[in-house]
Design a protein that fits this description.
Elements (H helix, E strand, L loop, with lengths): L1 H8 L2 E10 L2 E11 L4 E6 L5 H8 L5 E8 L2 E2 L8 H6 L1 E4 L11 H11 L5 H14 L15 H13 L5 E5 L7 H18 L2 E5 L3 H6 L3 E6 L2 E4 L1
Parallel strand pairs: 3-8, 3-9, 6-7, 7-8
Antiparallel strand pairs: 1-2, 1-4, 4-5, 9-10
Helix pairs in contact: 5-6, 6-7
Length: 229
Amino acid sequence: MENDNKSKENLILFENADILNGETKVIFGMNMSVAPGDFVYIVGKVGTGKSSVIRTIIAENSLGGGRAVVCGYDLATIKSKEIPFLRRKMGVVFQDFQLLMDRSVRDNLSFVLKATGWEDKAKIDSRIEEVLKSVGMGAKIDKMPFQLSGGEQQRIAIARALLNSPEVIIADEPTGNLDDDTATGIMDLLSAINKEQNTAVVMVTHNTSICDRYPGRVMLCGAEKCVEI
């Protein structure tokens, strides 16, 4: 029963988990827990499996062994039809924004809501306005992505991640393509969401100075391990 209780307390729980990159195990015996309100960094050199951990969390990669439970779903037994429901409980932010360049900000966010089951146009419009305001982008609702700076595009990507009120935000190098000042703004935003909404954040970064400026727990990947330091 202790393990079941741990799963309920934690949004993410890895116990002696092996992480795959394709068919190859890149991390052995990983243990990690993420509870509501946690801010957890995953750091390490290029090629040490950081992004593979993220892809495992969102069930893009299969679990290579051990135990992993994410937002109530057992990754060892999750069915493909359940994966979209798992992902609705998370907000995912990528380094390269991944906005649809031929659609306005409004239409980018509307697309996500409709794809996750929202039907009422008034509720869709209201939620879009709400999340854009929360990231300081309310005035950009009818802009096209190419009309926005990199930092503005990343704020829109964070707004998109917040649409379904996720329990946890998964961010893979969210400041990697941004200059220092813009990156600071993005980190201020993620930190505020974490503190004010009690939303857990799991963030991959190669910039360890961020970990000093915005304290959180740190998982270090290297030598086929990923351990808390």
